[in-house]
Amino acid sequence: MPFVPHAASSSPSTFLHLAYEVANCVYDGLRGDFKGAAACLRDSGLHHLLSDAWQSTGCRHQERALSAPATAGVADVAFACALSALTIGAAVRYLWPEWRALENALGEGAQAQRQWALQTQTQLRRRTPADLTSMRQCLAAFDATQMFANGSLPEGAAQGAASSGRKLAERKIAEALILHIADAPQTCVAQSDRVASLCQLLAHGLRFRLPQAMREALRVDDARPSLVRFDGAFALLCDRLEPDWRHDVAGSPTFTVHPVDIQLFDPAETTNDLSKETRRERRLLTHPDALRRIRSRVVALMAASVREDCGSASDWRDIGEFALMAGAQRGLTCDRVLDALGIAIRASVSARFAWYWSDEPQAQAGQVVTSTIPVDVSQWLARVMLVAGKPEMREPCPPRLAALARGDTPPSLVIGSTDWMHLVDGIRALGRDHWRADFAQVCEEGRA
Fold first, then answer.
1. Does residue 351 carry a pLDDT above 60?
2. What does the CA dihedral 115, 116, 118, 122 come to, rounded to 10 degrees?
3. In 3D, which of 38, 34, 39 has the Cα closest to residue 119?
4. CA-based nearest residue to 397, from 384, 379, 407, 410
5. For residue range 400-440, what is the model confidence (pLDDT) as tens digits?
6. I need a labelling partner for 311 at 20 to 30 A (CA). Which of 7, 100, 182, 343 fits?
7. What's the CA gap between 131 and 183, in Å, rounded?
8. Would you call 111 exposed, middle or buried from its count of C-beta atoms within 10 A (0-12, 13-18, 19+)?
9. Domain layout of the chain by residue ranges
């Protein structure tokens, strides 16, 4: 955020702006980016702020000298001195080594100057488009998660402290999840804008209060949940949210076969060699009740967005039941049934039905708008929709559909076979805990 002339004063807001710019300079310096370090003095207008600070100090000193000679301008002088110290420190820390390197190159001849130029060019090119887009998206995520809509607790509630701790855990988990999705490098700024809007809409769906300007830019309507406004969002969400259960150990705290996994940390990593504050933060980020509630909100938000943004008001649980009936009658495998559901998803779900981006080619007269969701992503989305169900019903996923939605259900498993029945019975016996048990454990429970 650039500074404007005559903005220097000892107010807290100005100091926060200064701290923000200095932090950016420190970040650029740690990355070894000479261009970024120089920008903290040029682009941010820090030299204007420094000049205005001393000018403002002199004016305020003259104004206050008559009324309070002993304390005239003390705060302004302190602020200007602190600002000068920070500026000099930043210059010495980040610019002085570069100046010395240039001075040595100029004194050693043409070959040294050429070597210095090549090194400088490498530093300037080190920040790739992928780095820039990821940083833009993360900054958008930070802006969207500044305010959290905490629900008020009833007075005298016995579980007030536990509920307050869970709400804090929900906020921390939601912040980490949004930042995890935002940290996805893109190839261009236009695509980065799409991802940034996805993160902001997700923040709104997870009960963060967006600034009014951001709400207006996103066209947020509280009565109509919105999340997915471009088909590529499904692929990004699949990549970020689908659990990697194939490379995880069954029975571990991080193992899950649910289509959506938002647990980003292992509770076992909270060891004694970490600081007390770090252990507390890890405990919040792995709070089981908070994780389950945030996951339910993400699944419900995706389902609502499919209905509101992507033109599909179908009951996907009913469609899944019909597909299972047909699969049992014809002896189809789980893979064939999921293929059919994925085809149905691609035929009826697309953000292109409702949202148009200016850099996309406009459909010509008579041209049919089709979905651009990849096949594997459409199958994952079908599993998510089976788990989500209808928002007004809020019923748990039936065991037959949960067996199809599990990530580790063998693709070659025949619908209606003995192993299939054991799997369904095991899910019914374990309840929602079956998501954290592998296929063999669930089938064993069904045989008992």
1. yes
2. 140
3. 34
4. 384
5. 999 999 999 999 999 999 999 999 999 999 999 999 999 99
6. 182
7. 9
8. exposed
9. 12-127
